[in-house]
C-alpha cells in the first residue's frame, strides 16, 4: 500500500473527532488494467471489503496553458481535497479571451485532453455533454414559451434566453 501524501492530512483543529479510526491496506486500483475482467475483479473486491478504493494516478494533467484535463490538487481549509476532477468542454476547440482586460482583443484556444489508456472515456464524455447541451436547449425553449404565454410583451425582447 502507498503512503498517504502529507498534503491530504488536515490540521488537528479541522479533523473530525471520532472515537478511533484506523485503516491499513486500502485497495489501490489500476483503471488501465487489461483484460477488463481483472479490473472488475479488483473493483468488486475493493467494494465488497472496503466500500471504496484509491485509484492510480493519471499522467494527464491540466496546466496554465490548457486548464482542461485531470486535476487532483484542489484545496479546502488549506488541505488538499480527496477528490479528483476531469474537466472537459463541449466545444472543441473552445476559444476564450486571453485576459480579463476589456481592451485586450487577443483570444486563446483551449482543447480537451484525453487519457490515452481510456479511449472509451472520450466517446462517453462527448455523448453526455451533447445530451446535457440538448437538454439546456429544450429548457430554454420551454422557458421562452412560458414567458410568451404569460407575458406577450416578452416577444419584443428577442434572443435574450
From TrEMBL:
Gene3D superfamilies: B-lactam Antibiotic, Isopenicillin N Synthase, Chain. SUPFAM superfamilies: Clavaminate synthase-like (SSF51197). InterPro entries: IPNS-like_sf (IPR027443). It comes from the Eukaryota. The chain crosses the membrane at residues 121-141. Keywords: Membrane, Transmembrane, Transmembrane helix. This is Uncharacterized protein.
